[in-house]
Design goal:
The structure holds five protein chains of five kinds. By secondary structure, chain A is α/β, with parallel strands linked by helices. Helices cover about 40% and strands about 25% of the residues of chain A. The mean pLDDT of chain A is about 90. Chain C starts with a helix and ends in a 15-residue tail after the last helix. The model of chain C is unreliable at about 320 (pLDDT under 50). Classes of the chains: A alpha/beta, B mainly alpha, C mainly alpha, D alpha/beta, E alpha/beta. The structure holds adenosine-5'-triphosphate (2 copies) and magnesium ion (2 copies).
Chain lengths: ~260, ~375, ~325, ~375, ~260
C-alpha cells in the first residue's frame, strides 16, 4: 500500500471555498488524491464531504479556488464533460434509473464515450451498430465484474439494496473513469455485505482506477484506504495514514468520539 | 381508511374497464415475447390495413355523417402524426409541452407563405418547413429547457399562443384572414391503382392521396423514432426522465438531448403542418388554438405516453370518436371532457402503456409522495439534491 | 411608442393594478394547490368561472337589478362574495374529490393529473354553456356568448392621480385583493390548518406521522384556493358586469402565468406576480397596442424566468430544495 | 357506397328528388349567425315541397360548427357521396375559403346568405354566389354614414382581430383616408378588460367610435367606454346587429349606437313583403326572423327557381343562376359574373330602447 | 401486549414485501428488528404507523384492532415514528418542526417543548434554524424529538444511526436508552445490529419478509448464525466505540467471494 502514496497527483483541490448563502460548507480546502491510491474522506455529518464530491463533479461551482484533474482545471466545466474527462461517482442516496434494466443503466454510463448522434441512430448506420455492440459487451463485462452478471435484465429498482449499490458502481465504471468517487457505499449494509464491498473496491483499485471514498464505517476505512483526510466544518483537520489519523486527538474529539479507547 | 377506498365507489366502472384493458396488457406481454417473423407480419398487416382504410364500406360504419377519407386525413391522420411527434417530447424525454400546436402552425405557415409567395413546390417546402420548425423548437428550448418541468408547461403554452397571435396580428401573412390558395403538391404520377383512385395525384376533392402521404410520413417517422428509442439517444432520454441530475453526472449532456427532443418533435409537427396546409388550401390562425395542443397531449397520455402503438391508438380514438358521435352535436366536447377524467381515474397509465410506465404505476410513486396515507418518501428526492 | 407610455402612464397604472389584483387572487388557487400537490390545477379557471355565476345567482336571489349604495351595497357585496366563494370553493373541493383524489391514491403521474384537469375543465365549461346557463339562468340563445350581470354600483371617479381618475370600482378591486391576501397569509402562517398545509407540502409522509389528516388538508387547500377565486369572481362581476362560460380560460392562463412569474408555491409571489403582470400588460399595450397584450405577457414571463428560474420571489410553500 | 348515399345515385337526371345542402354552424359558439339563414332556407324548401312539384328537394343541413377543419370533410361528403346539386352556404367566410375549391372542382353551385368577406369574390370561382353585399361595400357605406350623417371628423376604429372584424375595420379605415382623422386599436376577442383601449380612445377624444366585430365584444366595449365617460356615438357592422349588444352594454349606454348591415332585418322592417315573411318564419320556428333569415330564404329561392325551371343537375343550376334576376324578399337578386350581387345596398339601424329600428339605406338615412 | 402484529401481509403493487409477519411488543420494552437490506423492516414499521395498507392479517394496539385505522388517527392513539431518512420539514424551523409533533393534540405544549430541549440541548441552540440546513445528526435528533412530541406510547425508530458519524451513533443510542427510561416503549429497526442488540430487551430477525428468529437480545448476540449474518462474525467493528477498531484486528473476510447477501 505504501508504494503508491508517492504517486503523482490525479486530483488536486487548491484553496477551495464553497458558500451557500451564509453557510460556509467548504473553507479554504487543499486536497490531493494521487494516482492509484484509495483515499478516504471522513468527518462528522455536515462537514462538507459530499460537497467536495459535488465540487469535483461540477454539480457546484466553487465560490473560490481551483479544482484540477490530471493537471487541468476542471471547475467551470459542464458536469457531463467532467465525466468524459474521467471522473465518475456514486451517490449517498442511491440514484439509479429505477425503471430501466441493470444493463441499460450501465449502458447509459458507457454512452458517455459514444459518438453517434441522432441521425446515425435514427438511420441505423453501421458505426452506430458497432458502438452499440461494443457498449453492450462492456456493460456485461462490468456487471460480471461487480458480481451481478446474472441480473442484467432485471429492473434497477427490483434489485436488492446491496446489488443496487453494485450496479451504481458498475454504471460509474462504464464511463471509464480514472477517478472513482464513492459516497458512503457501505451505508445501510450489514457486515457481510460490507466485507464483499470492500473486496470490490480493492479490485477496482487494482484494475487501475483511483478511488476517493467517503465512509462512516471506520472498520472499512481503516482497512482499505491508503490515506485518509478528515474534514470538520469544511476544513481539513487531519490527513495521513489510517492509523495516524485514528489516533489524532482532534479527530477523536470531532468525529470518533471515544477518547478512552483510542490509545 | 385508505385501503378499502380504492375498491368502492366506481367499482363497476373499474371492473368493466379492467375487462377492456386486461387484454391490452396481455397483448403487450405477448408482443414482447413474439418472434421476429410474427412482428414483421403484423407490421405488414397494419400497413395494408392503413392503405385499405379509406374505403366507402369502412367509412359507412366509421363516419356515416361525413367523408371518411377526409376524416382519415384530418383529424385522424394529422392527430396521429402530431401525437407521434409530441410523444418524442413528452413520452420519451419527459418534457411537458403544452404548446405543441405552435410547430404545426409554423409548418403550415411556411407552406402557405412560400407556396403562395415564392411558388416553390411542396417537396421543396417541406424540407424548409422541417428546418424552420425545428429551429423554432431550438429557439424556444434554448432559454427555457433549463427550467423546472412545470415551468416549461406554462412557457410552452405561452409560446403556442404567441405563434398564433403573431400570425393573427401580422398583416404581411394575412393577419386574421390567413392565407388562401395554397398550392397542392405537384402530381407525382397519374397512375390509377384501382378505378377512381390515383394515389399520387393531389387534387382538391379526393383526400386519399394526402392520406397516403401522411401514412408514408408516419411509417418513416415511426421507424426513425423506434430506432432512436432503442439507441443511445433513447436511453439518454429515459435517463433524463428518471433522474436528470444523475444522468448529467453519468455523462449525458442533458440539455443537448432535451433540445434534440424538442427539435425532433418540432420537426415532426412542422412536417404535419405542411401537409395540412397543402390539403386545406386555406389556413387561418384560428386553425391552431390551444385546445389542439391539449387534445394532442390528451391523445398521447390516453393512449399510453412513451409507447408508440399506444400513442397511435390514443390519437386515432381522439380524432375519430367525436366524428363517430356527431349525433351528440353540442355535447361532444362535454363528453370528451368527461371521458378524459374517467379514463384517467380508471387507467391513469393510458390504454397501452409501455412496460416501463405500467411499472411506475404498479409501484405507485408517480406523484412524489402525495399518495395520501400511502405516501412514498419525497424526502429522498429532497435530500439527494443536496 | 414611449410617448404613449408617458401620456398613458397613470391610467395604465391604475388599470394594470386593478386587473393585476384579479390575476393575483386567481393565482393564489394555482399556487396553493401546486405548493401542496405539485399539480397544475388546470381546472381552476372553471372554479373562477363558476364563482362568477355564484355571484350572479346570489344577485338574482337578492333581486338586485340596479346600483345600490351605502350599507345596502356593503351588505350585497358581502353576500355575493359569500355566494361566489361557496360556488367556487365547492367546485374546487368537488374537483379534488372527483378528478384528483383517486389519482393521488394511485400515485399516478403528473401527466395523468394534467389530463384529468383539462378534461374537467372542458366538462365544466360545456356543462355551463349547454345546461346550466340555458336552464339555470334561462338564457338559451345568449348562453354561448355572454350573460350580463346587473350593475351593483355607480362607477364614479373618486380622486385623480396625475391626469388619471381613480374610479371607486377599481379601488374596490385593488383593496379587496390586498385585504384577502393578508387574511390568507395569516391563515397559512399562523393557524393550525396553515401549519398542516405547510407540513403536507414539505413532506406528506412525515405529516401523516404528526397526525395530520392530509386528505383533509388537501381538501382545505382546494377550498381556500377556490374561495379566493370566488372573491376574485365577485370583484370581477362588480367591475365588468358580465360573464361567460369561457370567462375563466384566459384569466386562468394569465393567473397561472402570474403565479409562475411570482414563484409558484409562494403566496406572496402570487400577489407580486399578479400585480406585476397586470402592470406589464397595461404599460405594454399602451406602447404596442392591445393586440399584443398576451404576447407581451408571455415574453416577459420567459424573460423573468431566464434571470430568476424560480420566479420573482422563488418557491416557498415547500421551500428549500436545499 | 353504402349508407345514405344510395338514394341519390343518378345525379339529378330523372324527376324525383334532388338534394340541396346547407353548410354552416348549427351548433357551437357561432351558431347564432348561421341558424336564422338555415331556418330561412328550410322555410323556402318546405313551402316549395308542399306545392307537390315534379322534382322534390331534399334539404340536407351539414353542421360545420363554423370550423374550416370540420367543414372540409362535410363538403367532401356532400359532393362525393350525397351528390347534392346545390348548396346554401357556406355560412361563414372562413369555411368558404376551404369549401369553395371543393365545390368548384365538383362543379356544384353555392349561394351564401351570410359570408361577407371581400376576397371570396376574387378567387375566380364560377360556382359561388352570395345574396349579401360584402364587407367591402359595408365598410365604405358605414364610413360614408359616419362622415355624412354623423358628421364625425375624428374617428377611432377598434376591431377584435377576427377575420371578419379586421376586414370590416380595414375597409372603413381605407374609406376614411383623407376624410377624417383616424386612430386604431384592437381588443382581444376572449378578453374582458378593454381598459387600455378605452384609455386610448379617451385620450384621442373622437367624434365617433367604429367597432368591427361581433355584438358580445361590442357590448362590452361600449359599456366600458360609457363608464369611462366617453360619450362619442358608437357604430358597428352586421356582426353586432343583435339584441345582445344592447343587453351587454346596458340600455342606457347603448343609446346613440348605429349598426350597418347588408341585411334586411325581418323584425325591423316596415315593408309588407318582409313583414309577411317574418310572420311565416315566426309561425314555423317560433322565433323572430333574425339576421340573414331573409337572405337565407332568398338564397334558397334562387335555387328553387332553378329547379322549378327544370334544371336538376348542378351544372345547369349554375347556368341558371348566372342569368337569374328576381325581386327577393330582402332585395333584388341578380348575380354579377363573380358571384356577387350586381347591386348592393347597405342599411343602417339604430338602437331604440331594447331594439333596433331601420333608419334606411346608408346613402340616404339620417340621424334623428 | 401494547402492540401486536398477527400474520400480516403487505404488497407494493405485485411485489409481496411482508409475507406473514407476527410480532409483539410489550409495554416498557425496547424491541429490535434486525435483518438484511430489503428484509422488510421499514415496511413493517410503515405498516404499523399506517403509511402502508395491509393486504391480510391484523395489527392490534392496546388490545384494539387498528388494521383499518388511518395513519393520522394512529398517531393520536399513541404510535409515533421517526422515519427512515428523518423526514424533517425542511422549510420550517426546528421549533416549528417540534410543534408539528403536537399538531394533533390539544392543550399547551410549552412544557413538552421544554422537555425536548432538555433531552436534546443541541436542538435548543438551533431552535430558530431551518430544519433543512441542519446536519444529518441534528436532523436525526429532530426527527426523534418530533416523534416524541406526539406523546407516543410506542416509538418506532427506523435506522436512527444510518449515515451518522461514529460519535453521533453513540449519542443517539444513549438517547434511545434515556427515552426508554422515561417510560416510552421502543421498536427499533437497525442495521447496526451489534449496538441494537446491546440496547434491546428482545429482538426479531427478519429475512425476505418473514420472521426467522425471535429471542431475547442476549440470546441472539450469542447465536452463531446471527453473528455470522448480522454481526459480521466476530468482527465487531461497527461504531468506533468498540475497543478493537484497529486496522489489523478488523474483519477477516470469512467467505471469500461471498455474494452480497
Ligand atoms: N445546496 C445547499 N444549500 C445550502 N446548504 C448546503 C447545500 N449543500 C450542502 N449544504 C450544507 O453544507 C454543509 C456540508 O454538507 P455535506 O452534504 O457536504 O455534508 P457531509 O459531510 O456529506 O455530511 P454527511 O456525512 O451527513 O453526508 C451542511 O451544513 C449542509 O447543510
Ligand atoms: N416503494 C416501493 N416500491 C416497490 N417495492 C418496494 C418499495 N419499498 C420497498 N420495496 C420492497 O419491499 C421489500 C422490503 O423493503 P423495506 O424497505 O421494508 O426493507 P428494509 O428491511 O427496511 O431494508 P433497508 O435495510 O434497505 O431499509 C424490498 O424487497 C423492497 O424492494
Ligand atoms: Mg454526505
Ligand atoms: Mg429500511
Amino acid at each position: 500500500m505504501s508504494d503508491v502514496t508517492g504517486g503523482r497527483a490525479l486530483l488536486a483541490l487548491d484553496q477551495i471555498t464553497m458558500r451557500f448563502g451564509g453557510v460556509v460548507a467548504i473553507d479554504g480546502l487543499d486536497l490531493e488524491v494521487r494516482q492509484g491510491e484509495i483515499f478516504a474522506l471522513i468527518g462528522p455529518n455536515g462537514a462538507g464531504k459530499t460537497t467536495v464530491f459535488n465540487l469535483v463533479t461540477g454539480v457546484y461551482q466553487p465560490t473560490a479556488g481551483r479544482v484540477a484533474f490530471d493537471g487541468r482545471k476542471i471547475n467551470g466545466m459542464k458536469r457531463f464533460s467532467v465525466t468524459k474527462r474521467g471522473i465518475a461517482r456514486t451517490f449517498q442516496n442511491i440514484r439509479l434509473f429505477h425503471n430501466m434494466s441493470a444493463l441499460e443503466n450501465v449502458l447509459v454510463g458507457a454512452d458517455a464515450h459514444h459518438r453517434t448522434g441522432f441521425i446515425g441512430a435514427g438511420l441505423g448506420l453501421p458505426w452506430h451498430r458497432r458502438e452499440e455492440r461494443e457498449g453492450r459487451a462492456l456493460a456485461r463485462e462490468l456487471l460480471d465484474f461487480v458480481g451481478i452478471g446474472h441480473r442484467t435484465e432485471e429492473w434497477a429498482k427490483n434489485l436488492p439494496y446491496g446489488d443496487q449499490r453494485r450496479l451504481e458502481i458498475a454504471r460509474a465504471l462504464a464511463t471509464k473513469p480514472k477517478l472513482l468517487l464513492l459516497d458512503e457505499p457501505a451505508a445501510g449494509m450489514n457486515p457481510a455485505e460490507k466485507r464483499s464491498l470492500q473486496q470490490l473496491i480493492r479490485r477496482i483499485c487494482d484494475a487501475g482506477t483511483t478511488v476517493l471514498l467517503i465512509e462512516h464505517d471506520m472498520g472499512l476505512v481503516m482497512e482499505i484506504s491508503d490515506r485518509v483526510a478528515v474534514l470538520d466544518f469544511g476544513q481539513k483537520i487531519a490527513e495521513g495514514r489510517p492509523a495516524e489519523v485514528q489516533n489524532n486527538p482532534a479527530v477523536i474529539e470531532a468525529y470518533l468520539g471515544a477518547p478512552a479507547d483510542a490509545s | 381508511m385508505s385501503h378499502s377506498k380504492n375498491t368502492t365507489g366506481i367499482g363497476p366502472v373499474r371492473a368493466a374497464m379492467r375487462k377492456i384493458t386486461t387484454p391490452f396488457d396481455e397483448m403487450r406481454d405477448w408482443w414482447g415475447r413474439a418472434p421476429g417473423w410474427v412482428r414483421w407480419t403484423v407490421y405488414g398487416l397494419v400497413i395494408v390495413a392503413a392503405l385499405l382504410a379509406p374505403s366507402d364500406s369502412v367509412g359507412a360504419f366509421m363516419s356515416p355523417e361525413s367523408d371518411w377519407a377526409t376524416i382519415l386525413f384530418y383529424p385522424i391522420g394529422v392527430f396521429v402524426l402530431l401525437a407521434i411527434g409530441l410523444n418524442v417530447v413528452v413520452g420519451q424525454a419527459g418534457l411537458l409541452d403544452l404548446g405543441f400546436v405552435a410547430f404545426f402552425a409554423i409548418g403550415g405557415y411556411v407552406m402557405a407563405v412560400i407556396g403562395t409567395e415564392l411558388g416553390w413546390n411542396f417537396w421543396e417546402i417541406i424540407v424548409v418547413a422541417v428546418l424552420i420548425s425545428s429551429l423554432s423548437g431550438i429557439i424556444l428550448g434554448a432559454p427555457t429547457l433549463r427550467l423546472r418541468g412545470d415551468y416549461l408547461a406554462i412557457v410552452t403554452l405561452g409560446f403556442g399562443e404567441i405563434v398564433r397571435l403573431v400570425a393573427q396580428n401580422t398583416d404581411a401573412i394575412g393577419g386574421p384572414r390567413g392565407i388562401n390558395s395554397i398550392p397542392h403538391p405537384p402530381d407525382m404520377s397519374d397512375i390509377e391503382i384501382i378505378p377512381d383512385l390515383q394515389p399520387f395525384t393531389y387534387g382538391v376533392i379526393d383526400p386519399r392521396p394526402y392520406y397516403y402521404l401522411l401514412v408514408a410520413l408516419c411509417v418513416l417517422v415511426i421507424i426513425f423514432a423506434r430506432r432512436l428509442e432503442k439507441s443511445r439517444v433513447g436511453r439518454a432520454w429515459a435517463a433524463i426522465r428518471e433522474d436528470e441530475d444523475a444522468a448529467e453526472i453519468m455523462g449525458v449532456p442533458t440539455f443537448r438531448f432535451k433540445l434534440l427532443a424538442f427539435a425532433i418533435g418540432a420537426a415532426i409537427g412542422g412536417a404535419t403542418g405542411t401537409v395540412f396546409a397543402a390539403k386545406m388550401i386555406s389556413i387561418v390562425p384560428n386553425n391552431f388554438p390551444f385546445i389542439l395542443s391539449a387534445t394532442i397531449l390528451a391523445a398521447v397520455v390516453l393512449g399510453g405516453s412513451g409507447n408508440l402503438p399506444g400513442v397511435i391508438l390514443g390519437a386515432f380514438l381522439v380524432g375519430w370518436l367525436p366524428e363517430r358521435f356527431r349525433g351528440f352535436e353540442d355535447y361532444r366536447v362535454l363528453l370528451f371532457g368527461g371521458v378524459l377524467v374517467l379514463m384517467m381515474i380508471v387507467r391513469p397509465q393510458g390504454l397501452l402503456p409501455s412496460r416501463q410506465r405500467s411499472a411506475e404505476f404498479a409501484e405507485g410513486s408517480g406523484m412524489g409522495g402525495m399518495g395520501a396515507e400511502v405516501a412514498t418518501p419525497t424526502a429522498k428526492a429532497e435530500v439527494s439534491s443536496r | 411608442m414611449f410617448n404613449d407610455l408617458v401620456s398613458q402612464f397613470w391610467p395604465s397604472t391604475i388599470d394594470g393594478l386593478a386587473l393585476g389584483s384579479i390575476y393575483a387572487l386567481i393565482a393564489l388557487g394555482y399556487t396553493m394547490v401546486y405548493g401542496v400537490l405539485r399539480l397544475i390545477n388546470f381546472a381552476h379557471s372553471e372554479v373562477f368561472m363558476i364563482g362568477t355565476f355564484g355571484a350572479l345567482l346570489t344577485l338574482n336571489i337578492l333581486g338586485v337589478t340596479g346600483p345600490v349604495s351605502g350599507l345596502t351595497f356593503v351588505g350585497v357585496l358581502f353576500l355575493i362574495a359569500a355566494g361566489a366563494m361557496i360556488a367556487s370553493g365547492g367546485t374546487a373541493v368537488l374537483l379534488e374529490l372527483v378528478a384528483y383524489r383517486r389519482l393521488r391514491k394511485k400515485g399516478a403521474s403528473r401527466l395523468a393529473f394534467l389530463i384529468s384537469a383539462i378534461g374537467a375543465s372542458l366538462f365544466l365549461q360545456e356543462l355551463f354553456a349547454l345546461v346550466v346557463i340555458p336552464e339555470g339562468f334561462d338564457r338559451p340563445q345568449a348562453g354561448r356568448i355572454q350573460v350580463p350581470v346587473p350593475a351593483l354600483m355607480e362607477k364614479e371617479p373618486l380622486f385623480s392621480i396625475g391626469d388619471a381618475v381613480v374610479r371607486n370600482d377599481k379601488l374596490l378591486v385593488f383593496v379587496g385583493a390586498i385585504v384577502m391576501m393578508i387574511v390568507l397569509d395569516l391563515i397559512v402562517n399562523r393557524t393550525r390548518i396553515g401549519r398542516g398545509i405547510r407540513a403536507t407540502a414539505q413532506n406528506p409522509e412525515s405529516a401523516v406521522l404528526m397526525g395530520v389528516n392530509i386528505d383533509r388538508v388537501v381538501l382545505m387547500t382546494f377550498l381556500i384556493g377556490g374561495a379566493m377565486a370566488g372573491i376574485a369572481a365577485a370583484l370581477y362581476v362588480v367591475e365588468f358586469e358580465n360573464t361567460q362560460f369561457f370567462v375563466g380560460f384566459l384569466l386562468g392562463i394569465k393567473a397561472f402565468t402570474a403565479a409562475v412569474m411570482g414563484g409558484i408555491g409562494n403566496l406572496r409571489g402570487a400577489l407580486v406576480g399578479g400585480l406585476a403582470l397586470g402592470l406589464i400588460e397595461a404599460y405594454g399595450t399602451s406602447m404596442l397596442g392591445s393586440e399584443w397584450q398576451h404576447v407581451i405577457a408571455f415574453s416577459i414571463l420567459v424573460l423573468v424566468l431566464m434571470f430568476r428560474p424560480t420566479g420573482i420571489l422563488g418557491e416557498s410553500l415547500q421551500q428549500a430544495r436545499a | 357506397g353504402g349508407g345514405s348515399g344510395d338514394g341519390s345515385s343518378g345525379g339529378g337526371e330523372a324527376a324525383g328528388t334532388v338534394k340541396v345542402g346547407f353548410l354552416g354552424a348549427l351548433t357551437g359558439e357561432n351558431a347564432g349567425i348561421a341558424i336564422p339563414p338555415h331556418n330561412g332556407a328550410k322555410l323556402a324548401f318546405d313551402e316549395y315541397n308542399k306545392t307537390n312539384p315534379k322534382t322534390k328537394i331534399e334539404y340536407v343541413p351539414y353542421d360545420s360548427q363554423g370550423l374550416p377543419e370540420q367543414a372540409t370533410p362535410l363538403a367532401t361528403k356532400a359532393v362525393r357521396e350525397d351528390k347534392i346539386v346545390a348548396m346554401v352556404g357556406p355560412a361563414f367566410s372562413g369555411e368558404s375559403k376551404n369549401v369553395g375549391p371543393i365545390l368548384e372542382e365538383a362543379k356544384v353551385p353555392s349561394v351564401s346568405a351570410s359570408a361577407t368577406a371581400v376576397d371570396l369574390a376574387q378567387q375566380g370561382w364560377k360556382y359561388w354566389h352570395r345574396v349579401v353585399a360584402n364587407d367591402g361595400a359595408q365598410g365604405p357605406a358605414a364610413a360614408e354614414f359616419l362622415t355624412r350623417a354623423m358628421k364625425a371628423k375624428k374617428i377611432f376604429i377598434v376591431d377584435d382581430s377576427q377575420e371578419y372584424s379586421a376586414g370590416l375595420a380595414d375597409a372603413v379605415d381605407a374609406t376614411l383616408k383623407g376624410k377624417a382623422t383616424v386612430n386604431r386599436d384592437k381588443v382581444d376577442q376572449q378578453g374582458s378588460d378593454y381598459a387600455s383601449t378605452v384609455n386610448k380612445i379617451k385620450a384621442f377624444n373622437p367624434d365617433a367610435v367604429f367597432f368591427g366585430g361581433y355584438y358580445a365584444q361590442a357590448g362590452r366595449l361600449l359599456k366600458q367606454l360609457r363608464q369611462a365617460d366617453v360619450q362619442a356615438p358608437f357604430m358597428s357592422g352586421d356582426g353586432s346587429l343583435d339584441a345582445g349588444l344592447i343587453e351587454g352594454a346596458g340600455e342606457a349606454n347603448a343609446t346613440d349606437t348605429y349598426i350597418a348591415c347588408p341585411c334586411v332585418l325581418g323584425s325591423a322592417s316596415d315593408d309588407p313583403e318582409v313583414k309577411d315573411f317574418a310572420q311565416r318564419y315566426k309561425a314555423a320556428f317560433n322565433a323572430d326572423a333574425q339576421i340573414y333569415a331573409t337572405e337565407g330564404y332568398d338564397a334558397a329561392t334562387a335555387i328553387i327557381d332553378a329547379i322549378k325551371a327544370g334544371n336538376t343537375d348542378a351544372e345547369k343550376i349554375n347556368e341558371f343562376l348566372k342569368t337569374y334576376s328576381k325581386k327577393g324578399v330582402s332585395k333584388d337578386i341578380k348575380f354579377a359574373p363573380n358571384g356577387e350581387l350586381s347591386t348592393s345596398s347597405i342599411f343602417v339601424y339604430a338602437v331604440k330602447g331594447k331594439d333596433y329600428t331601420l333608419l334606411g339605406d346608408s346613402k340616404t338615412a339620417s340621424v334623428q | 401486549m401494547l402492540l401486536e402484529l398477527k400474520d400480516v401481509y403487505v404488497h407494493y403493487g405485485k411485489i409481496e414485501a411482508i409475507k406473514g409477519i407476527s410480532l409483539e411488543v410489550a409495554e416498557g420494552e425496547i424491541v429490535s428488528l434486525i435483518g438484511a437490506n430489503g428484509a422488510g423492516k421499514t415496511t413493517t414499521l410503515k405498516t404499523i404507523s399506517g403509511l402502508r395498507p395491509i393486504s391480510a392479517g391484523r395489527v392490534l394496539f392496546d388490545g384494539k384492532d387498528i388494521s383499518r385505522t388511518p395513519g393520522h388517527v394512529r398517531v393520536l392513539r399513541g404510535i409515533g415514528q421517526a422515519p427512515e431518512g428523518r423526514g424533517v420539514f425542511p422549510g420550517m424551523t426546528v421549533q416549528e418542526n417540534l410543534q408539528m409533533g403536537a399538531y394533533a393534540r390539544k392543550g399547551n405544549t410549552a412544557g413538552d417543548l421544554a422537555e425536548m430541549y432538555d433531552l436534546f440541548p443541541r436542538l435548543n441552540e438551533r431552535r430558530a434554524q431551518m430544519a433543512g440546513t441542519l446536519s444529518g445528526g441534528e436532523q436525526q435528533m429532530l426527527a426523534i424529538g418530533r416523534a416524541l412530541m406526539t406523546k407516543p406510547k410506542v416509538l418506532l425508530l427506523d435506522e436512527p444511526s444510518m449515515g451518522l458519524a461514529p460519535k453521533l451513533v453513540t449519542q443517539i443510542f444513549s438517547i434511545i436508552e434515556e427515552i426508554n427510561h422515561r417510560g416510552t416503549t421502543v421498536l427499533l429497526v437497525e442495521q447496526n445490529a451489534q449496538q441494537a442488540l446491546q440496547l434491546a430487551h428482545r429482538a426479531y430477525v427478519l429475512e425476505t419478509g418473514h420472521v426467522v428468529k425471535s429471542a431475547s437480545a442476549s440470546q441472539l448476540l450469542d447465536d452463531p448464525e446471527v453473528r455470522a449474518a448480522y454481526l459480521g462474525g466476530d468482527l465487531g467493528v461497527d461504531g468506533a466505540g468498540e475497543a478493537d477498531a484497529t486496522p489489523n484486528g478488523a474483519g477477516r473476510p470469512t467467505g471469500g467471494d461471498a455474494p452480497a447477501q
